[in-house]
Amino acid sequence: MNLDEMLSQPLPEVPDNGFSDRVVLRVKAHERRKWIEIAMISVLAAAVACLLLPIRAIVGDFAASIILLGYSPTFGIGAAVLAATFLVDRLWSERQLLQF
């Protein structure tokens, strides 16, 4: 029997015995732990930032910047373009769905 004949033959079935289910459970547990670690690090970083940064000064500067953005024609045009793009995309996707 040559190599081509050997490779063309189907392999015998191997019993799973729940191996795939155990692997899936371990992967899901690992992903859950990863997201919990990310959330804990984010909360810790936010807590340290709240303790060390001058929050009132930052919030005041942010509020002043937001108010100034409202008077900016460039920002208004950009927001209008984003809204129009979103609406056209929604209408286009609904039209595509109705055609099928």
Helical residue percent?
Answer: over 70%
Distance between the termini: 52 Å
Order of helices and strands: HHHH
Rg calculated over all Cα atoms = 28 Å
Output mean pLDDT: 88
Q: Domains counted in the coordinates: how many?
A: 2
Distinct helical segment count = 4
Strand elements, count: 0
Low-pLDDT residue spans: none
β-strand percent reads under 5%
| Largest beta-sheet characterization | none
Class by alpha and beta content:
mainly alpha
Shape: flat
Keywords: Membrane, Transmembrane, Transmembrane helix
Transmembrane segments: 35-56, 62-88
Task: Describe this structure as you would to a colleague.
The chain is built from four helices and no strands. The protein has helices spanning 3-8, 19-52, 55-70, 73-99. It has two domains: 19-53; 55-100, no CATH class. The radius of gyration is 28 Å and the shape is flat. It has 100 residues and is mainly alpha-helical.
Key features of this structure:
2 domains, mainly alpha, 4 helices, 100 residues, single chain
Topology (elements, then pairings):
Blueprint: H1 3-8, H2 19-52, H3 55-70, H4 73-99
Transmembrane segments: 35-56, 62-88
Keywords: Membrane, Transmembrane, Transmembrane helix
Briefly say what this structure is.
Keywords: Membrane, Transmembrane, Transmembrane helix. By secondary structure, the protein is mostly helical.
